[in-house]
Amino acid sequence: MHPNDVILQTVTKLLAFIIVIFSFYVFLSGHHNPGGGFIGALTTACAFLLISVAFDIETVKKMIPVDFKTIMAAGLLIAVISGMIPIFFGENFLWQTFDYFDLPLLGDNTELATALVFDVGVYLVVIAVVLSIIFTIGEEQ
Amino acid sequence: MYVFTALHWATISPLLLAIIIPFIYKYARQIHTGWFVLVLPVVLFVYFIRFLPTVSNGEVIEQSVPWVPSLGIHFNVYVDGLSLLFALLITGIGALVVLYSIFYLSKKKEQLHNFYVYLLMFMGAMLGVVLSDNLIVLYAFWELTSLASALLISYWYTREKSRYGAQKSMLITVLGGFSMLAGIVLLSMITNTFSIREIIAQADVVASSDLFIPAMLFILLGAFTKSAQFPFHIWLPDAMEAPTPVSAYLHSATMVKAGIYLVARLTPVFGGAAEWFWIISIFGIVTLLWGSLSAVRQKDLKGILAFSTISQLGLIMSLLGLGSATLYFSEGQNVELYLTAVVAAVFHLINHATFKGSLFMSAGIIDHETGTRDIRKLGGLMTIMPITFTLSLIGLASMAGLPPFNGFLSKEMFFTALLNATEYGIFNMETFGMLFPIIAWVASIFTFLYCAVMFFQTFTGKFEPSNFKKTVHEAPIGLLISPLVLASLVIIFGFFPNLLSKSIIEPAVVSIAPSLAGSEYLDVDIYMWHGFNAELFMTIGVILFGTILFLLMNKWTKLSIYKHERDPFNRVYDGALSGLSTGGKKLTDAYMKDNFRQYLIYIYSFMVLFLGYMMIRLDVIDLFPESYAPIAFHEVTLVVVMIAGAITVAIAKTRLKALIGISSLGFATAFFFVLFRAPDLALTQLVIEIASTVLFLLCFYHLPLFKETVDEKSAKLINGIVATSVGTIVTLLAISAHNNRLFEPLTEFFVNASYDEAGGKNMVNVILVDFRGFDTLFELAVLGIAAIGIYAMIKGKVEKEGL
Is residue A31 assigned to a domain? Predict the structure, then answer.
């Protein structure tokens, strides 16, 4: 599509990784710092958008060989199920908790929150929604 | 434990039989379905006859089954003289009509299951109306009679006139029905009960209530529309499109008397008031006159009978109106005088049912055997159809009020009642009340005239076989049985009126005027010969003038008024109906412009007006608060950027320019979030702005060229005004709301709890996924739905084009 955009494509190859890693950072640090599932997902989606602008939508599709609608459903399911699990422990729907663990690699006294599971759901839904909207419309061209 | 008693089962048995009629029709095609139906009214008639001794002793029977007890709605059946009289009419004439219909409707050509289902529906509904003590139950059955009547009128639904007639009767009677419901509700508001007997017991409470007049008017509207009183009578002539058994049953003997029943039933509640007396008497007498005048102009046998029914109903109604004065006087000579009116009303009610039923059946026979009901074509049937001729003669003579038939007696009593009313003066009856006997007398002349016209035009003269499609001969015996029974009743009641007086008229009169129970005035004695009194001379005058008018028929039939058969009030109805529909269409067209911008103007204007009004009314506008934060320089700069962006969007000539304007607004908003220390929002806003701009650019090539709006200046002005006022209102609201804060915000809680309880330092995120995760969950669902919607819209387009 853009055979001569060498600079753009080269920069994209580099930048996309940085953006994705940054988006993971934003996603994971959301509990204590600005960020979270929503922003993380949007940032990841922007990385894919950049690839699709520099290369082609087909390229992105090859990179993520799954149907966005499945991801969307999976994300919603994760969010709902994570909300339902507390019910079996006699708590309310969407009840969240957290605790501190000593984990390898991540270090001692690391906080793990159940809210993260819910956030994974948010992350998956948002990324799938944005990409599916843009690709559906983009493919129409 | 409440159980349905035999009386309850009897009341709803026609409805139950109606359910199985289609099965009988389907599996017993060889036998006319009517035979199966016939059993029920006969059994019911016998069942109700058995109440006669009890009721004539002055006892009443009451059975109650709760229906909606919490609302005071009980299925109460209540048998007293009046209910029993009507129940006997309904079942007795019902049986005769079913018998008649067996021979009238062909087994092969007609959809009999429909007919009998509707007829039984009607019979059950009518029994329910007259036997119910609970007004709400009465109303339910009342509407069921309207429905069944409309179904029966449109029985031959392929004919346009049938449908017109059915619609008309439905609209008018349902209008009255709703009004009656309003009256019922008002009555129950006054008395706190729906039971008629309990309301009667509280009649003095009702009379002293402010709602007395509205309740009375609403109920009377219901009664007048149902009983075809002037000017609501117009539906009845058009209801003649129904099969003749239906006309005989519904539109002469039973349904049209439901209004009479209601008036009679509620007389103990409302009677004694001058308004009730005057309204009913005047409407009745006007109906009497109008009906008899109009009947003369009709050329169709059933048309004459329809207007004659209207006229006779008016007669009964006016008698009930006059009779209600009995409640005003508790004793004395006057009671006796007005009592005559009540007795005459009840007696004529019975008489009318007998002779009008038989006349309709005779007319049906003539129609059935000759193929026409037009009196201009008919003639000379006397020798060809001798039995029908005799039956019609009896019926018409009774209707015209000739001795020795029962119509004569009730007409004499009618005159007596009217003369009494004027003579002894009540409610200023002596002044223009003098008109009453005169109007009644004139109406009687015309009654005589149309009876004579109907009789002589049909049966005398020359017989013209060419006028008829069929070879004319006497009807089969089956068709003749029912009118024969009714006609013999006409004669029997004529010669032995006291057969009825003790057994049924007296209890019925007591129901209408309960204060008379056991009083010495109540001694109904009807006899043929009163001596030479004013009434007799009035009757002689009626016969004399009627005969003269009939002999002069050649003269007045040339008058143009004779040519116009349709009632002039039809024009009002038709005009109102088409006016409603064209007016409604015009009104809708005036504001439903199929223009999105127009609707937005409505919505925003309403919002501005409503918010503005409320803000002024509650006096909450407050623009000068104590606590504005200091405004920094960079905030001013950002605001200037935003204003510039907004103006760019508004005046942009190309789409790209508008897009840039919008993006600048979005980025400026993100900066505001930064300034106001909302990093999450700022991040989200930035990324969303980028994504949506990309999206817009993607769609860019698909969009049509940016259309230069060629609106008129006035439209632009309106848009400008609406937009400015919305902006002003929202600004005012926002500032005023800021200054009218009633409670402390919840911030404190979240600040404290987000780390302690949820373990997160990012308060925004903790709120999103923990404290208020439920919202987030469904926002995700919203996003998903939006994505699937876009996918479906774009991918589904191909299939749509393929169609």
Answer: yes
Q: CA nearest B128: which of B180, B75, B201?
A: B75
At B59, give phi and psi (nearest 5°).
Answer: -90, 160
What are the two backbone dihedrals, phi and then psi, of residue B48, each rounded to the nearest 5 degrees? -75, -30
Number of domains in chain A: 1
**What is the distance of C-alpha A109 from the center of its chain?**
26
| Domain assignment present for A1 | no
Q: Sort strands A107-113 and B61-68 into parallel, antiparallel or unpaired.
A: unpaired
Write out the two tokens for B458. 């049909």
Please say whether the beta carbons of B170 and B212 come within 8 A.
no
What would the mean pLDDT of A56-64 be, rounded to a whole number? 83
Tens-place pLDDT, residues B268-288: 888 777 788 888 888 888 899
pLDDT digits (tens, 9 = 90+) for B343-401: 888 888 888 888 888 888 888 888 888 888 888 777 777 788 888 888 888 888 888 88
Interface of B with A in 776-795 (CB under 8 A): 776-777, 780-781, 783-784, 786-788, 790-791, 794-795
Residue type, A2: H
| Lookup result for tokens 């019902």 | B94
Instruction: For residue A92, tell me if it sits in a domain.
Output: yes
Residue type, B500: L
CB < 8 Å & 24+ apart, contacts of B634-640:
B634/B675, B635/B672, B635/B675, B638/B668, B638/B671, B638/B672, B638/B675
Q: Which residues of B touch A132 (CB under 8 A)?
A: 787, 790-791
Q: Is the pLDDT of residue B447 over 80?
A: yes
Alpha carbon distance B51, B146 (integer Å): 28
> Which H, E and C letters describe B716-755, residue by residue?
HHHHHHHHHHHHHHHHHHHHHHHHCCCCCCCHHHHHHHHH
Q: Are A136 and B795 within 8 A, CB to CB?
A: yes
Radius of gyration of the CA atoms of chain B, in A: 38
When pLDDT is averaged across residues B600-618 and rounded to a whole number, the result is 91
Q: What is the DSSP letter of B626?
A: S
Q: Which of A20, A78, A122, A126 to mutate to test the interface with B (most CBs of B within 10 A)?
A: A122
User: Contact at 8 Å (CB) between B444 and B411?
Assistant: yes
Is B698 near chain A, with CB under 8 Å? yes
Per the structure, the complete domain to which residue A47 belongs is given by: 6-139
Q: Select from B59, B55, B79 the least CA-distant residue to B5.
A: B79
Q: Is A135 on the interface with B (CB under 8 A)?
A: no
Domain ranges of chain B: 6-576, 596-742, 744-802
CATH annotation of B596-742: 1.20.120
